[in-house]
Specification:
Layout: H1 4-30, H2 34-87, E1 91-96, E2 99-103, H3 105-111, H4 115-118, H5 129-143, E3 151-157, E4 163-175, E5 178-187, H6 189-279, H7 286-317, E6 323-326, H8 327-337, H9 339-345, E7 348-351, E8 357-360, H10 362-378, E9 387-395, E10 398-404, H11 437-447, E11 451-456, E12 462-469
Parallel strand pairs: 7-9
Antiparallel strand pairs: 1-2, 1-5, 3-4, 4-5, 6-8, 9-10, 10-12, 11-12
């Protein structure tokens, strides 16, 4: 392909040759006078010089105009390029053979170096060591036209020593009349951090799943072991239930024996002693009469003790079916049973009405309240007339019945002890009794699904309470 300058030179040579040949022929044909021919030849030469000058002027002006236009276009493009690179949100690195020859503000911001520092560095000096060799090979491959990946991710080390991840797009362009390597880069550091966090979270989640799976397997194994243990316990429980049932039968047989076989000779002792007192009193000296009276009293106490033991035993094994009962009638019946004791101690029992209906086992509830009232009448200081007050208040989903006395009170450390079987705080000579009455109260309330307790202060009386579900309550 002929270049424009050579084409112009050949055209000028052709025109010059044609001018010389044609002008010579025309001059020889038209002019015969040698002198005139010489003068016309001189004029022809000056005309050729003038025409050549005009042609050269026109050609040079056209060439200079094209050059000026191309220069202006190039300058405009360069100005637009620089304006674009100054404002674009992408880092731009241009390099020749690796040495940076142009960077934009975003590249300066990403790297932390100044423009002057960057233009003295090779591109791969910015890249972390693990990616430097890859960047070198790919840059050389693109410059020689061998191609290679045009988009990849790598991390650079900033001037401050920080790691920054970039997504790089690489290419080759012409810059300032020579081919250069072009690298445009976006900052993806935050995305990489997020990906790392997600990876960490996924790894942690996988670890937790593995741990939870192991825990679940261990729990399942424990559950299987527990189920086997439960089956074994159920078998043992069944055996214990059968043994308990057998014990209940034995207890019932023992109770029958106590009720009949043990009390029969006791009644005989009481009968013979009373007959001795009645029929042979005159033959007994005072000491003999005292002994006979002691035998009757001891037999009577033994009979009461046996009755209380039987009552406590029956409470422990009987099935109690709570039914609606009137507390007013229960308290009245208990008071009626204690008429002799009330009169003997000149006791006053005050019942604050109304008393509600509750759910309870009537015989057991009568026995419980009888024991509480008897206890309140009995345990007073010598010479003090018992004052007993009975009332009810709402408590939780039921009612609480209070029995308050003006007795001797109970030390705080013994408030639970008094509800145990055979527990006595005072001698039998001072305050007679079997030591089972309050144990029957606690056991009876437990069997009816209630509870019993006491609030007391030594020397200032006691307030015993029992809790029962109210009829129609929760």
């Amino acid at each position: 392909m002929i270049s424009p300058p050579l084409r112009i030179a050949l055209l000028y040579l052709l025109l010059s040759a044609l001018w010389i040949v044609l002008s010579d022929r025309l001059l020889h044909q038209l002019v015969a006078d040698p002198y005139l021919a010489e003068r016309l030849a001189t004029l022809r030469e000056w005309t050729f010089v003038l025409a050549s000058t005009v042609v050269l002027f026109l050609l040079l002006r056209r060439g200079l105009t094209a050059t000026r236009r191309a220069t202006n276009t190039l300058r405009e493009r360069e100005r637009n390029f620089r304006m674009l690179t100054e404002t674009i949100a992408t880092a731009i690195f241009l390099h020749r053979g690796g040495r940076l020859c142009f960077v934009n503000p975003k590249a300066i911001a990403y790297s932390g170096y100044t423009r002057e520092e960057l233009l003295t560095m090779d591109l791969w000096q910015l890249v972390s060591p693990e990616y430097q060799e890859m960047v070198k090979q790919r840059s050389v491959s693109r410059l020689i036209g061998a191609g290679g990946p045009v988009c990849y991710e790598l991390n650079i080390i900033t001037k401050q020593g920080e790691e920054r991840w970039l997504e790089v797009t690489a290419d080759s362009i012409e810059f300032e009349g020579a081919p250069v390597g072009l690298a445009t880069a976006y900052d993806i550091t935050e995305r990489k951090r997020a990906e790392h966090q997600i990876h960490t979270l996924n790894s942690d989640l996988e670890r937790r799943v593995i741990e939870r799976t192991a825990e679940l397997e261990a729990a399942n194994a424990q559950l299987r072991f527990s189920q086997e243990s439960i089956r074994e316990l159920n078998v043992a429980l069944q055996q214990r239930a059968e043994e308990l049932q057998a014990s209940v039968h034995e207890m019932e047989a023992f109770s029958y024996s106590v009720s009949h076989d043990l009390r029969a000779p006791l009644r005989a002792i009481q009968g013979f002693t009373q007959a001795l007192q009645e029929d042979y009193a005159a033959q007994l000296d005072p000491a003999g009469q005292d002994f006979a009276q002691r035998i009757v009293a001891a037999a009577s106490r033994m009979d009461i003790l046996i009755q209380d033991l039987l009552a406590y035993s029956q409470l422990s094994r009987s099935e109690l079916s709570p039914k609606p009962v009137s507390l007013s009638k229960i308290v009245a019946e208990a008071t009626s049973q204690l008429e002799v004791q009330i009169a003997a101690h000149q006791a006053a029992i005050s019942v604050i009405e109304p008393l509600p209906e509750v759910l309870g086992h009537r015989p057991t509830l009568v026995q419980v309240i009888t024991n509480l009232l008897s206890n309140a009448i009995k345990f007073v200081a010598p010479g003090v007339a018992p004052q007993v007050r009975v009332w009810v208040e709402s408590y939780g989903n039921g009612v609480r019945l209070w029995v308050e006395d003006n007795g001797i009170g109970i030390p705080a450390e013994h408030e639970e002890r008094i509800f145990r079987v055979f527990e006595r705080l005072h001698g039998i000579e001072t305050y007679p009794g079997t030591g089972i009455g309050l144990a029957i109260v606690r056991k009876g309330m437990e069997r009816m699904g209630g509870s019993a307790g006491v609030v007391s202060q030594e020397g200032k009386g006691s307030r015993f309470w029992i809790d029962l579900p109210e009829k129609g309550g929760g």
